[in-house]
Amino acid sequence: MKKLQYWNERMETLSRDELAAMQLKGLQWTVKHAWANSEFYHRRLSEANIEPGDIRDLDNIRDLPFLTKDDFRDQYPLNMLCMPRSSIREMHMSSGSTGAAIVMAYTEADLAQWAECMARCQIMAGLQPGDAIQVTPTFGLFNGGFGFYHGARRAGLFTIPTSSGNTARQIKLMRDFKVRGIGSVVSYATRIIEMLDEKGLDLPDLEIGIFGAETFSDEMRKRVETRLGIKAFDIYGMTETGGVGTTGMDCEARCGIHVWEDQYITEIVDPETGAPLPDGAVGEVVFTSLTREAIPVIRYRTRDLTRVVSRERCACGRTSLRIDRIEGRCDDMLIVKGVNFFPKQVEQALMEIPGVLPEYQIILENDHGVTDIRINVEAEEGVTGYMVEKKLKERLGFSPKGDIFKPGTLPRGEGKARRVFHVDKE
Ligand code: DLL
Asked: What is the pLDDT of residue 99?
């Protein structure tokens, strides 16, 4: 059988003009649908003096009000619903770091849309119908497990829904069932490596890793690829847009994340003012869904920071706009001794030190109003705190205290890793 390069060649290679025409139609439909069927959106749009007929071209998107995380939280549980409750088939929820829940509901068509986006991602990573994929993110309210599952079913893959945990068994299953690809939260890939190292094992058949849900430095990606002998792809998505993969993935060319532009409009705005930013400038990415029924998003402010890398056709042949891999979240930016940085930059620097392992913590100590920073990091013998301090000084311009921990001694959780800890100095 001929190797599939695309899941949906037509949609993935539309001309920019065709994409623009589809986006306008989708935007007009979404605004009309939200205005007519949800009290919340009706009120919001009316307050901004918008009626569906006002959307005449794509630039009119800038007249629409933003949607925020707080809106989602305030409308808990289903007050943003634009379809009858009887048409809902599934929901997912994220609690986020503050614990206030964000709910996404899906009609049958929304599930099909999610499956389509995820099937595109899995084929873009090089998986082929019939290949086995092991789905290691949790199956439950977190969207990760089910997202890979719906997409893999659609793409004709052999799905092994292990969910998270029991890493020794995960490795056995990968071997026994000749798994070609795994889907995983980034930090779980490092957990697999630890288990392999501990037992001195190899993973001969694994070729493809699709990782996301957390930022992922280039150095970390290199390490994971080398140790697992795979190609690693960066998959992006969130509960609010409909889950993992809805907002795209990077391809083999590694020139940014392809956003599925027939499904979402992408804007980059200034995180402070909300003003639109030009291509290339880093800002907050904002998404508008074009086909989603149950809870469409109109100008959803993600808090994620990135930039538009290109709108040209990619080496892979896809025509959709590419955004950079996520730098961090607006809320994650740390300021220590006047230097602004993201946890991902600390990770990048740490991974450049030979012998340093992927498990680390950034501890911000508040000493009567002054913030001090300490890095706890696992490392092999021979790595010293001074090496960590020197590297961070070189890369970020300040020297935190570096504390070295033996492999396996820092606490690990399931799901997304927690990297930053705020403590008060006694
Ligand atoms: O984390 C969806 C997902 C599951 C993506 C599995 C990839 C793999 P939420 O729990 O709603 O959904 O969290 C969404 O996680 O706004 C980003 O801040 C972050 N995030 C997701 N993917 C990436 C990525 C899932 N590839 C939030 N790189 C998003 C960096 C990511 N951050």
From this structure: 60
Q: From atom 19 of ligand 1, which residue's Cα is the shortest distance away?
A: 213
Which residue is associated with the tokens 């992408």? 266
- Is the shortest distance between the CB of 214 and ligand 1 below 6 Å? yes
Instruction: Please report, for the domain that includes residue 361, its CATH number.
Output: 3.30.300.30
CA 195 to chain centre: 25
Stretches in the chain below the pLDDT threshold 50 = none
Instruction: Report which of 203, 213, 214 is spatially closest to residue 181, judged by C-alpha positions.
Output: 203
Domain that includes residue 80, residue range: 1-330
Q: Evaluate the CA torsion angle 252, 253, 255, 257 in order and state its sign.
A: negative
In whole angstroms, what is the distance from residue 25 CA to residue 56 CA? 10
Q: 3-state class of 366 per DSSP?
A: strand
Is any atom of ligand 1 closer than 6 Å to the C-beta of 250?
Answer: no
pTM for the whole thing? Answer: 0.96
- Pick from 330, 364, 391: which residue ends a domain? 330
Task: Report how many domains make up the chain.
Answer: 2
Answer yes or no: do 342 and 412 share one domain: yes
Q: Distance, CA 380 to ligand 1 centroid (Å)?
A: 30
Give pLDDT tens digits for 274-310.
Answer: 999 999 999 999 999 999 999 999 999 999 999 999 9
